[in-house]
Amino acid sequence: MSIASEKISDASATSQDDLASYCQDVARRAKAASRVLAQVDGAAKNAWLARSAELLRNNGDAIAAANALDLEAAPDYGLTEAQVDRLRLTPDRIESIAVGLEQIASLADPIGQVIDSTVRPNGLRILKTRVPLGVVFFIYESRPNVTADAAAICTKAGNAVILRGGKEAAHSSRAIVELLQKAAQETGLPEDAVQLVSTTDRDAVGHFLHLPEQIDVAIPRGGEGLIRRVASEAQMPVIKHYDGNCHVYVDASADFDMACEIVVNSKCHRMGVCNAAESLLVHADVANEFLPVVASALLANEVELRGDPRTCELVPQAVAATDDDYGAEFLGPKISIKTVASTSEAIEHINQYGSHHTDAIVTKDLATAEQFANEVDSAAVVVNASTRFNDGGEFGLGAEIGISTDKFHARGPCGVEELTSYKYVVHGTGQIRG
Amino acid sequence: MSIASEKISDASATSQDDLASYCQDVARRAKAASRVLAQVDGAAKNAWLARSAELLRNNGDAIAAANALDLEAAPDYGLTEAQVDRLRLTPDRIESIAVGLEQIASLADPIGQVIDSTVRPNGLRILKTRVPLGVVFFIYESRPNVTADAAAICTKAGNAVILRGGKEAAHSSRAIVELLQKAAQETGLPEDAVQLVSTTDRDAVGHFLHLPEQIDVAIPRGGEGLIRRVASEAQMPVIKHYDGNCHVYVDASADFDMACEIVVNSKCHRMGVCNAAESLLVHADVANEFLPVVASALLANEVELRGDPRTCELVPQAVAATDDDYGAEFLGPKISIKTVASTSEAIEHINQYGSHHTDAIVTKDLATAEQFANEVDSAAVVVNASTRFNDGGEFGLGAEIGISTDKFHARGPCGVEELTSYKYVVHGTGQIRG
């Protein structure tokens, strides 16, 4: 429907001038669509989401056919088995994309919400009112379900979105976006509300990142290299989502059964995700008793242990940890372990080696819990629960476009509200300044 | 007290290597101070503010002596009379700086405030808790009172601040910062909570802007050139404060007396400020009746009128407006005027020519007021009051460090809360993900 998705062009065939003007055109259309979208009511956005879900369900075969083209090409891109698995769209996965859109439809409309208000002594009523950010440029890698999620979250928040997916999922993403655009046409949303970048030329990203007048925020989701590139080139704000080197600290007062369950769940529930634990800190006073127990639970899950000298002494299967191990996001069956003399030492270690993402403590002591919650400088600090809960869905945001490791604008899971701004609306009865 | 303010060095005497390492040292100290400051309670911050106010009052002579050095040097810097006036610190102005600090002390402490909370079906209690941003790098021009204001707002929000003031006010700013630092020492705040950059070398700004690990946000306040430079060089987020091309739109249903008062107040109350009106839009249906009235009120205030053909027809003193006039922030006794056929045309004109700062409507019609408030894309939209109210003090924020024309993180007046972030604190009883 929009020219942005008419064809998946060959990178080499596009001259830099053509590419620049293509990107400018996409961005200009997005900006125009965002102006319309900002005034669209919640019912229209929800009708679009519902119709999109319906079209995804009704067109499972077409999506599967497009997906087959991507799966066929996967070996050429050198995808690992796990990556191919993430790329695959089964009927169950298509159903779950559709359900995701319906869940986003069920969220309250954020636009127009009065976030704060004051009545001034002179009678002025000042309302701080939620508005969309404008245009979101979303750069992501090869999971095609992210295409629908991101489009839905951005649009629910009243933003137009420019989607730049990985080339590995190009056909699948295009099939999904065409259905979302068809739904937009049928339900009266602006046709450029959701655009998919049609070229896989890497330089396109650079062109978009230099259009701050049209694009209000860039959100890269993928490896650290991608995020660093976007952060350094972008002329507009960026919501960054760096790595998750998450910790579980087991305090001397911890319930050992609870601690063991939380460590194993944080590490093993899903190893390849950003909120999985990568490091275990144990209070020295309980190391003798607790470390062998937790170690055998981790070993039973085939997790490799890298410990400090004390750990290696207590757990024969552990190998010596390096400084790099303490800084690493393993995203796999490895964990670094360290004994600490105090909660303060644990906090210091986390603030130094961690990535300010998610860190948990297991403790029965109130003052210790408060100290940890106050002093650990992370997007989420968890007391007596798994690190795996730092997630938009688990936090009740309905959906998320990523987990920000920034402090500016958005921190932690970014849902619909994190994709909004505000304006002040001031109501007077003729007031002037004296 | 801190080496950062020990001497105002000569730019030419500093090699680039020395300068880089000086800037790194200042930033590192600020980061360390910010970690301490984040844990300081409100009483300590307020004690510092109160003692700072006291020291400013008790050391009026020393401040005046430092200020005299700046005033003496002013002709060398080619300052205009108005600029010299803004530079001057009279006893009244010193008193008002002290009162400003006391007002900031009287504000509620923002840190630790629970902004939002949810209890999840699994019993997890999720608290969204306000925390400081960290380190603020504040770059400003020649008004020395801004030195104290900015330091107070940043510190109240739990941030360390690196102040980079204009060379024209270097001695005055140094005198003020030395007193703030003395108060910090006496009241137990970290000594590097407030640092003044001691070199006037322009390259220092560039060095600081490349330290994103230490500095969490850069806030430039001054001319557009400064802000564009900072925005383009900074490797950390920037709160930008571009120009204010503010409008007053007088709808056909407006009360003419009210409209005339609001136009004159918006334009003439203080002409050199960002929330002064620069443009007047009048509904064509009432142009015949209203334009001559408002024109003579503006002319009585010696405001030059630049109008469209209809305005020039109705007001002989008006000269023809150019497109540039409609885009201009005059900051002086000039106003552009245009008649419009509808509220939609007024909104379109404002969104195209305005600067998304502050725009007002005068109307009696509810639907028109709502349309204007919804569709004008500005930080503040004012219904039936002067544009001059878009100000941190007037909005009840207590104080402001600037008025953001961005949509990201902070929009409109930036007070203490706009200098904060948040973290999620999750309380569980052993929950794990299934």
UniProtKB/TrEMBL annotation, chains A, B:
Stored SUPFAM superfamilies: ALDH-like
Swiss-Prot/TrEMBL catalytic activity: L-glutamate 5-semialdehyde + phosphate + NADP(+) = L-glutamyl 5-phosphate + NADPH + H(+)
Recorded GO CC terms: cytoplasm
Known function: Catalyzes the NADPH-dependent reduction of L-glutamate 5-phosphate into L-glutamate 5-semialdehyde and phosphate. The product spontaneously undergoes cyclization to form 1-pyrroline-5-carboxylate.
EC numbers for this chain: 1.2.1.41
Record domain Aldehyde dehydrogenase: where: 20-300, 327-396
Subcellular location: Cytoplasm
MF annotations from Gene Ontology: glutamate-5-semialdehyde dehydrogenase activity; NADP binding
Name of protein: Gamma-glutamyl phosphate reductase
HAMAP family attached to this UniProt entry: ProA
Biological pathway: Amino-acid biosynthesis; L-proline biosynthesis; L-glutamate 5-semialdehyde from L-glutamate: step 2/2
Keywords of the record: Amino-acid biosynthesis, Cytoplasm, NADP, Oxidoreductase, Proline biosynthesis
Family recorded in the similarity comment: Belongs to the gamma-glutamyl phosphate reductase family.
GO BP annotations, alphabetical order: L-proline biosynthetic process
